[in-house]
């Protein structure tokens, strides 16, 4: 029965994705120290807060133009940000 299920999973459209996911889950360490998890979370949070343009492209999967990268980066660096744009920027 198990081999039959595994054959069905491997033959399905998402079989490769599922097997890759299961391999990654098996390789993942089971026990993660709470302090280590908090430290890593703080590091990633700080990184993405300082680099909002990278967060938009990597995590949100938004395709940005080069000037949009610069604008998002500058928005993250300063408390006050003014962008003076023409009509063409709205498209």
Write the SSE topology:
Elements: H1 2-11, H2 15-27, H3 34-50, H4 52-59, H5 66-77
Question: What does this 3D model show about the protein?
Answer:
This protein has 91 residues and is mainly alpha-helical. The protein folds into two domains: 1-30, no CATH class; 35-91, no CATH class. Helices cover 66% and strands 0% of the residues. The chain contains five helices and no strands.
Task: Please give a quick description of this structure.
With 91 residues, the protein is mainly α. The chain contains 5 helices and no strands.
Question: What's the helix count?
Answer: 5
Roughly how many Å apart are the termini? 56 Å
Q: Can you count the beta strands?
A: 0
Poorly predicted tracts of residues = none
Number of structural units classed as domains: 2
Shape: flat
Largest sheet: none
Helix content: 55-70%
In angstroms, what is the radius of gyration? 21 Å
Percent strand equals: under 5%
Mean pLDDT: 81
Briefly note the structural class of the backbone. mainly alpha
Return the string of H and E elements. Answer: HHHHH
């Amino acid at each position: 029965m198990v081999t039959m299920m595994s054959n069905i999973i491997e033959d399905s459209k998402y079989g490769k994705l599922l097997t890759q996911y299961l391999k990654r889950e098996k390789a993942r360490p089971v026990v993660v120290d709470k302090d280590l998890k908090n430290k890593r979370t703080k590091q990633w949070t700080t990184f993405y807060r300082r680099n909002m343009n990278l967060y938009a492209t990597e995590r949100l999967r938004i395709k940005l133009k080069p000037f949009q990268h610069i604008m998002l980066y500058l928005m993250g660096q300063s408390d006050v940000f003014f962008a003076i744009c023409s009509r063409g920027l709205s498209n």
